[in-house]
Design goal:
Elements: E1 9-15, E2 22-29, E3 32-39, E4 44-49, E5 64-68, E6 71-75, E7 82-84, E8 100-101, E9 103-106, E10 109-114
Antiparallel strand pairs: 1-10, 2-3, 3-4, 4-8, 5-6, 6-7, 9-10
GO molecular function, one term: nitrite reductase [NAD(P)H] activity
Domain Rieske: 10-112
Protein name: Nitrite reductase small subunit NirD
């Protein structure tokens, strides 16, 4: 069975200058709250759903970012559960996970990739 891989639709969410050097911001992307994280110290960007899967609260963009054994992560500010920003897996030992999104920077603008049906 052949599976077709769709290219995401790239949605601009703002200029790089609007994002803090080491932290997260919530952006409305195609009707969905997306947490966008800038790790200036690592020269990396990540995006994931803003919704905590544990409680459903829209808070992940306000979580603490860091790493766990080199894996970039965000810790929910409500319950401290940590999630990989690469895979979305909970790295706190729980079965929760979050959706991650592709992100890229072009000409000083931040873009989030959204899959369209």
């Amino acid at each position: 069975m052949n599976s077709i891989v769709k290219e995401p639709v790239w949605i601009p969410v703002g200029p790089v200058s609007e994002f803090s050097e080491e932290g997260g911001v919530c952006a409305q992307v195609d009707g969905t709250q997306v947490a966008v994280f800038r790790f200036s110290s690592r020269n990396e960007w990540f995006a994931c759903e803003n919704r905590c899967p544990h409680t459903g609260d829209m808070v992940l963009s306000r979580g603490m970012i860091g790493d766990s054994k080199g894996e970039p992560k965000v810790a929910c500010p409500m319950h401290k559960k940590s999630f990989s920003l690469r895979t979305g897996e909970c790295i706190s030992g729980d079965e929760y996970s979050i959706k991650t999104y592709p992100i890229h920077i072009e000409d000083g603008m931040v873009y989030i990739g959204i899959e369209k049906p």
